[in-house]
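Support reply, case 0932

Customer input (verbatim):
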Amino acid sequence: MRSLFQKLHLWISFPFGLVIAIICFTGSLLVFEQELYELGHRDMVFVQPEGEPLPLAQLVPLVVAGVPEGVEVTGVTISEEPNRAYKIHLSEPRHAAIFVNQYTGEQLGQFGRTPFYRVVFFTHRWLMDSARVGGDGISLGKTIVGVSTILFVLALITGVVLWAPRRWRSVWKSLKIRKGKAFWYSLHSAGGMYGIVLLLALALTGLTWSFEWYNKGFYKLFGGEVTQGARPKRLETEADYLVYDRVLAELSGLEYKEIRITPGNARLTLGGWGNQSAVDEYYFDGRNGMITQYTPYKDQERNSKIRGWVRSIHFGMWGGYFSKIITFLVGLLGASLPLTGYYLWWKKIRAKRIRSHFIANNGVK
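Our regenerated output:
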C-alpha cells in the first residue's frame, strides 16, 4: 500500500511541480503587496494632519473635474487614521482610486498596481495568460493554475500518508529536520507537515477563483450561494456629496478601521483579527443622509461572511502581521516542496544508475 501511495505522490506531483512552485512563490510575494506599496508611495498614501478635513462636497468635485470622460466617481473611503489620505474611487479602470489630501484638497496620485506586482499577480492567477479561448471563454492559464492546485492538494494528502509514522511515539522524530544525507528528505517530508494545514487552506480557498463549479460547490458546502455584486453607482450631483457629509456626521463617534460610502450605503470595516471584510452596514436616504437601516456584521448574509473569510485566509490577513508572516513563510515552503521532490527523485534515479553501472562492471549478481 505504501508503494502505491509513493507512485501516486510522484505521478501527481511530477507533471505540474514547477507550476505549483511558481504559484506558491508568487502567492508569497503577494502577501505583502499593500505594505510594500505604501512603503514606496508614502507621499501619496499618507498626509500631514492640518486642522479639520475639508467637506466631501468640496473635495469630490475637484476629482470629478479631472477624470476622463466616461469615468465616474463611485464612492469614498476614509480611514480611522487621520494621517491617511482619502481615497476617491473611480469606475474605471478596475479598483482605480485617487488619493486626496483631505486637509488641502491636493490630489496626490492614482492608486494602481505596480508593474512588478502586475506581473506577479498575472503569473499567480493566469501564468501570464489571461486570454479567454474557446466557446466557453476559458482561460488556458487559469485552467492550468486550477488543475495544478487540485493536484497540489492531492499531493499534500498523499504526502501525509507517506509521512505518517507507524507508531505514535515516533511522531516527534518524524518531524525533525535532520542533518547530513537525510537533510533534503527530512526537509521535504517533515517540512511539508509543518505547513500542511495552511497549505491546504490556501489551496482550497484559491480554487474558488479557478473553477466556477468548485466556487458554487464551496459556497453551497458552507450554506451560501454565489451571487454577483451590483455595479457601483456614480455620485450624480453636488447634493450627493453634501449628503455624504451628513452621513459622516451621523456616524461620528463610532469605531471602525475605515468607512466606505457609496450611494445609499456606508460600510464600516471593523478590523481586528478574523474576517477582514467584516463590516457593519448603514443604509441612508439619498436625499437627506438620514440613516434608514442598520445591519451589524453578525446579521450579514452568510454569503458575505464566507467571501470575507475566503479572502482573509487566502491573503493571510486574518491575524494582522502575524498571519501575514506565517502565510509568507508557508508559501515559500510550498514552493520548495516540488523542488526538493524533484531533487530527491533525481538522486534516486542517479543512485540506481550508479548501482547498475557498478554491477555491470564488476559482474555482481
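We compared this against your earlier run and they match. Two observations from our side: The chain has a mean pLDDT of 88. The two ends are 28 Å apart (CA to CA). Please reopen the case if you see a mismatch on your end.
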